[in-house]
Amino acid sequence: GVIEGKPALEETLETYATRIENAGQSVFREPKQELGEAITEARKTRRELAAMIGHMRGKEEQRKDLLWIGLCTALSVFILTFVSAPLIYRHLPFGWDATVAAIVMGQPDRVAAGSALMREANPSVWNQIVGDWNLISGNKANAKAVVTCESEAMKSHKAQDCRITVPAGK
User: Mind giving me the DSSP string for 56-87?
Assistant: First the structure.
């Protein structure tokens, strides 16, 4: 009969043991595979993170290097400008060199800048120049006498004695 047609009766203990073992392995096969994938993903993430940290350290070092390069460049440009400016400005056309000097010295014009330079270089000679200038330019008769005397000296090619009037001191 009926019982003999059932396949469960035909199986042995070894067959049951093999089926149980296969069932146990299949239960752990999927979690084991997922655990392996998780470990692989964690390793990949760790490598990427290490690369990112290394890259960020490299960028920080680049920032520091750029800062130092910028500071050194600025200092070099300042020193080079300070050293080369007089050499460059000396060759400017149209009296711009004296104009630059007046600007740098804070003087209103080139004459004032030149006067300040001469006064600073040798105060006693500057005072003599100012006194001589005032003696001639302050008195039209003296200025005319000097021009006449100079003209006679040029014609005769000899030194001339000139007469000027010196005003009384104040």
Answer: HHHHHHHHHHHHHHHHHHHHHHHHHHHHHHHH
pTM, two decimals, is 0.39
Sequence spans of domains, the chain? 7-86, 122-170
How far separated are the first and last CA of the chain, in Å rounded? 159
pLDDT (tens digit per residue) in 84-123:
877 777 777 776 777 777 888 888 888 898 899 899 999 9
Question: Residue 145 carries which side chain, given as an amino acid letter?
Answer: A
Classify the phi-psi angles of 157: left when phi > 0, otherwise alpha if psi is within -120 to 50, otherwise beta.
left
Q: Which two tokens stand for residue 163?
A: 């007469």
Q: How far apart are CA 9 and CA 24, in angstroms?
A: 23
